[in-house]
Amino acid sequence: MLAFAGLLIVMFLGEFGAGVGQSLVGQDIVADIRRDLVRKIILAPIDQLEQTERHRLIAALTADVGRISGFIRGLAYLIVASCEAAACAIYMAYLSWPMFCAVALVGVANYLGIRAASRLAYARYMEERQSVDNIQKSYQALIDGAKELRLNRRLRYRFFYDQIATDIERIRAATNSSSVGSVLSVALDSASFFIMAGALIGLSAWLDKSELAQFILILMYLKGPVGQIVLSLPTFDQSLISFKNVAELSQRLRQSEEGLLGSQSDSRTLGAFESLECRGLRFAFPVKEEVAPFVLGPIDLRVNAGETIFIVGENGSGKTTLIKVLLGIYPSPDGQIFLNGVCIDDSNRDHYRQYFSAIFFDFHLFARLTGVEETDEDEVRAHLTRLDIAHKTSFHDGAFSTLDLSAGQRKRLALIVTYLEKRPVVVLDEWAAEQDPTFRRIFYREILPEMKRKGKTLIVVSHDDRYFDAADRILKIKDGKIVEAAAATSA
Ligand SMILES: Nc1ncnc2c1ncn2[C@@H]1O[C@H](COP(=O)(O)OP(=O)(O)OP(=O)(O)O)[C@@H](O)[C@H]1O
To answer: Is the C-beta atom of 315 inside 6 A of ligand 1?
Structure first.
C-alpha cells in the first residue's frame, strides 16, 4: 500500500511538474521565436522587406507562431505518452516474448498505415497553409479597402463571393481532406488494438492464461498513450510546416544589419553636420517577373549645411528612391556617400542615419514620442498651436491624445515630431501635398525659411512649382538621373 501510495504521489507530482515545466519552457521557446522573427524584420534591409509581401509576414507572425505554440503546449504530454508506451512495450516483452512479437507485428503494420494516412494529410496541410497566406491578403484588402467596397457594388459583390469566399472555401476543403487523413489514423490505431487483443484471445489455447490476462490489461492501458501520440500527429505535421515557413522567411531576411538594436543613443558620432556628398551613387531594384527594374543613378551630389534643396521631377522619376538611398535606408547601393568627408559603410551607416529626420510620403506616425530623447510638453503645445492643430489633439505623458486626424493634419503632427527630434538634416517627401492653399503657402514662405534660419539643412521633394524659389538649389530628376541642378532663381 505504501509503495502504491508513493507511486501515486510520484505520478501526480510528475504529471503536474511536466505540465508546469512544459508551459514555462514552451512559452519561453515561443517568445524566443516571436522575438527572433520581429528582430529579423527590424534588422532586415528595407529593400528586402519591401520585396517580401506584407501578408506573408503577418501570417508568419500570427498563424505560424500560433501553431508552433499549440504544438509546444502539447509536447510534454507527448513525451510522457511516448515514455509510457515504451515502458509498456518493455514490460510486455519481459512478460512474454512470443506474445510481444505478435503484438509488435500488428503494431508495425499499424504504424505503416498511419504513416501513409499522415502523408495524405500532410499535402493538404501545405495547401491549407498557403490558403492562410492568401486569406491574410484578402483580410488586409477587406479592412484597407472598406471605403471602396462600400462605394462600388460590383467590387463588393465580387470581392465577397469570388475572392474572400473562395479563400474560405479553399481552407475549408483543405482542412476537411486533411482531417480525413488524421481520422483514418485514429481509426486504424483503435482497430489495431482490438486486432491485437482478438489475435491473442484466439491463440489463448496455446498461451499461459495468467500471462495473457496481464498482457491484455497492459495492451488496453497502452491504448491511451498511443492514442494520444496518434492524435498529436496532425498538430506535429502542421507545426512542422509552420517551422519550415518561419525558417524560410528567416532565411529570406537573413542579410540583417547587425547592431541596429544594440543601442538607443542617437548621438551623432561623426561631428556637427557640415556636408553630405555622394559620388557615383547607383541603386537598382531587383528584377521582378522579367520587367526591367528601375535604376537610380549614377548620382553625384553635394549638400552643404544650411542649404535648402528641392528635388523635383515627374512621377516615377526616382525622387523617393533617391532620398531613401541618400538616407541609408536602402543600405548597399553602389558608389560612395560621405558625411563630413567620412565615407559611410556598414560600420557607421546607422550613426549616419542619426543626422536625418524624414517625413516620407507614406509615413507612419507613432502615437508615443519614444523616438525623442526628451520632450518638453510646453514646446509640443506651442508647435501644435503654431501648426493650427491644438484644438484637434493634445499632448500628455509622451503621447498625442489622438491620431484620428485628416491627412494634412497628420502630416503637421509628423512635422512636429521632426522639430522635436532636433536633427540637423530634415527630409520632406511631398509634405505639402495634402495641405490647403493657405497652409501650403505658410509651409513654403514661413516654416521652411524658419527652419533654415535655425540652421537646418532641408531636402524637400516637391511638385509645387510656384514655390520653387523657396529653394537655394533645385535638382531635377528624370529616369533616375539628375538632369538639371539649378539655382532657385533660374528655375
Ligand atoms: N519597392 C519597389 N520595388 C520595385 N520598384 C520600385 C519600388 N519602389 C519604387 N519602384 C520603382 O521606382 C521608380 C521610382 O519610384 P519613386 O517612388 O522613387 O518615384 P518618385 O519620383 O518619388 O514618384 P512620385 O512623384 O510619384 O512620388 C518607379 O518607376 C517605381 O516603379
So the answer is: yes
Q: Please state the atom number of ligand 1 nearest to the C-alpha of residue 321.
A: 18
Could you give the ipTM of this predicted complex? 0.95
Ligand 1 atom closest to 288 (CA) = 4
CA of 176 to the centre of ligand 1 (A): 43
Distance, in Å, from the CA atom of 346 to the CA atom of 328, rounded to the nearest integer, reads 10
Ligand 1 within 6 A of 245 CB?
no
Domain ranges of the chain: 2-252, 275-490
From the CA of 324, how far away is ligand 1's center (Å)? 11
Cell of 441: 503657402
- Beta-sheet pairing, 395-396 with 399-400: antiparallel
**2-252 CATH pick, 3.40.50.2000, 3.90.226.10, 1.20.1560.10, 2.30.30.30:** 1.20.1560.10
Sequence-distant (6+) residues with CB within 8 A of 120 are 180, 181, 184
Q: Is 11 helix (H, G, I), strand (E, B) or coil?
A: helix
- Kindly report the pTM of this predicted structure: 0.76
Do 2-252 and 275-490 come out as alike in CATH topology? no
Dist. CA 247–CA 232, nearest whole Å: 22
- Cα 141 to averaged position of ligand 1 atoms, centre (Å): 22
From 53, 310, 315, 317, give the residue whose CB has the most ligand 1 atoms within 8 Å, as the site to mutate. Answer: 317
Cell of 338: 560621405
Encode the chain (491 residues) as per-residue pLDDT tens digits: 999 999 999 989 988 887 788 778 878 888 888 888 888 888 888 887 887 778 888 888 888 888 888 888 777 778 888 998 899 889 888 888 888 888 888 888 888 888 888 777 788 888 888 888 888 889 988 988 998 899 899 999 999 998 899 989 988 888 888 778 778 888 888 888 888 888 778 877 777 778 788 888 888 888 888 888 888 888 888 888 888 888 888 887 777 777 777 777 767 777 888 999 999 999 988 777 777 888 997 999 999 999 999 999 999 999 999 999 999 888 767 889 999 999 988 888 888 998 999 999 888 888 777 767 777 788 888 889 988 888 888 888 778 888 888 989 999 999 998 988 889 999 999 998 889 999 899 999 999 999 999 999 999 999 988 999 899 999 999 999 988 777 665 44
Is 319 a pocket residue for ligand 1 (Cβ < 6 Å)?
Answer: yes
Q: How far is the CA of 362 from the centre of ligand 1 (A)?
A: 12
Question: Under CATH, domain 275-490 is a member of which superfamily?
Answer: P-loop containing nucleotide triphosphate hydrolases (3.40.50.300)
The sign of the dihedral angle between the CA atoms of 121, 124, 130, 134 is negative
Q: Is the beta carbon of 320 within 6 A of some atom in ligand 1?
A: yes
Of 417, 382, 386, nearest to 403 by C-alpha is 417
CB atoms within 10 A of CB 92: 19
Q: What is the number of the ligand 1 atom nearest to the C-alpha of 322? A: 18
